[in-house]
Specification:
Bound molecules: zinc ion
Distance between the termini: 44 Å
Structural class: alpha+beta
Order of helices and strands: HHEHHEEEHEH
Number of strands: 5
Strand order of the largest sheet: 4-3-2-1-5
Oligomer: single chain
């Protein structure tokens, strides 16, 4: 029983930012260290799951945050709104090498010289990690290789 939303590619907006810039933004926001295992981010992977414009409607923003914190992945997956002239709030999965996932909410400012910041972080348990991991395309996980070298 796979619903329609599951079949749709998730995170179409992610091509808006060069992958390297995205990896670097997360890398910098986390100071290069995984908040779950305390190890360097090299060897970890991440994938964008949902994104919303952060400064338009408080209602939408609250729903986005509540869906994320409540692990309502299906609801959260419907948030795929991006406006290059507005701040964005992004939900990422960060994967430890041991397959545990963390939920990251990252504020992505549109101003060129402003920096991304992690607004919320939560390590998921084995079961939650496995459930969420099923909703990602297996070949879309990105590493921190280049960012790690630059940092
Ligand atoms: Zn880790």
């Amino acid at each position: 029983m796979i619903s329609d939303w599951f079949r749709k590619p998730i995170g179409e907006a992610k091509s808006r930012q060069p992958e390297e810039a995205q990896a670097e933004a997360i890398f910098r926001a986390l100071s290069g260290i995984c908040p779950m295992c305390g190890e360097a981010l090299r060897g970890h992977s991440y994938q964008l799951f949902a994104i919303t414009v952060a400064d338009e409607s408080t209602e939408i923003l609250v729903e986005f945050i509540q869906s994320a914190r409540g692990h309502s992945w299906e609801t959260l997956s419907h948030f795929q709104t991006f406006d290059p002239m507005k701040n964005a709030l992004e939900a990422f999965a960060l994967g430890c090498p041991d397959t545990i996932l963390a939920l990251l909410l990252v504020r992505d400012p549109f101003e060129l010289y402003d920096t991304s910041s992690v607004e919320y972080f939560e390590a998921l348990n084995q079961k939650e990690s496995a459930t969420w991991r099923c909703l990602f395309a297996t070949n879309n996980w990105r590493g921190f290789g280049t960012a790690a070298l630059a940092g």
